[in-house]
Design goal:
Number of helices: 12
Oligomer: single chain
Structural class: mainly alpha
Largest sheet: 3 strands, antiparallel
Helix content: 40-55%
Number of strands: 15
Strand order of the largest sheet: 4-5-6
Length: about 400
Amino acid sequence: MTVGYSESIESYCAHIKNVVLPFWHDNTFSKETSLFAERLDLTGNVLLNTPHRAMVQARQIFVYSHAASTGVFPQGAEYAMRAVENLLECFCDAGGVENGLHFSITKNGDVVSSVRDSYTHAFVLFSFAAAYRLSGDRNLRLAIDHVVSFVDQRLSDPRSFGLFDQFPPSTSLKAQNPLMHLLEAYLALHEAIPDGDFLVRAAAIVEHFKSRMFMHKHGVLVEKYGDDWSVLDEQSPDLFYEPGHQFEWAWLLHRFGSLAKTDESLISDRLWQTARRHGLNAKFLCYDEVSLTMEARRRSHRLWPHAEGAKIAAVRTEAGDGDARPVAEAMAYALNNTFLHQPFEGGWIDRVDEAHCALIDFVPASSLYHLYTAFVELAPLTKAGYSTERQMSGAT
């Protein structure tokens, strides 16, 4: 399916609302186990023996909670809340959610990995914000407090700030990705529970990002840091940046500034400009990795960076940046024509090489979160008038 640039945003949003959300709701949730599918095969059937990660359950809970509460997809509420109950029951040990959540389980509820993973817990909090906004359930509010406490006590580094990769830690390196999604979670929780301390927590992460993580000389953030957030040696194989995360942090800083009433445009703009100038090829496809010399290091292309590029381009367009609308259209075009509508109409190819050949042989459910959040930001640019509410979560 080929759609021109000027029609790409309308086409993208219509496809997500009318095809993707119904397909994944109707075909990937098990009423028997209350689990969303982890991945599908190339014909659209659930791969039953794949371990179910708590992170993927959380992402699907967010999508369908948010889509239900905003009226985009009201019928998503039941499955979202059933998945929340299952997450709290089957992904926790006998001590309950105050001891954190397992990384993954089988479809029968047996633990595959009991690791307490920082990235996972950030997404659990993010999903609970949306589910609480949908339901107002007091037990869910208590669960949020327990997970926040677990993050504080077991996953946070009291000496150098930020998060360990897991509990107990498996590496001395710090990664930006879990902290980025914890910021996203705190912003969502602030919107859902405005009388909490979540905006203060978010502000601490933003300040740390600006003072320790952002490389002002290069206009980038890298993926890995030393245990004290020092920049790695120039010869380290971990010293690179991902344009998709540049876009994602740019969007998060914009979002934080809107909520905290602060001006975060200086660094947000630099992240955006670096990714736009050096992270895209001539056809506006986003490279997976770029070196600090601004040369593409990994020339393959994944779906999610284009969704993140679409998000920040959309909000910049609404803020009056005349150069951002073409990027939003190009990102939607790439999603429409390189990744979506295959290998079946409601699915996607998650990663392609330079020749646009698929690099994986399954359809990962985890991509829906990126596609949906891009829809939320692109929808105000359409003529269809989708009711999405800009915030990724909100007070009940």
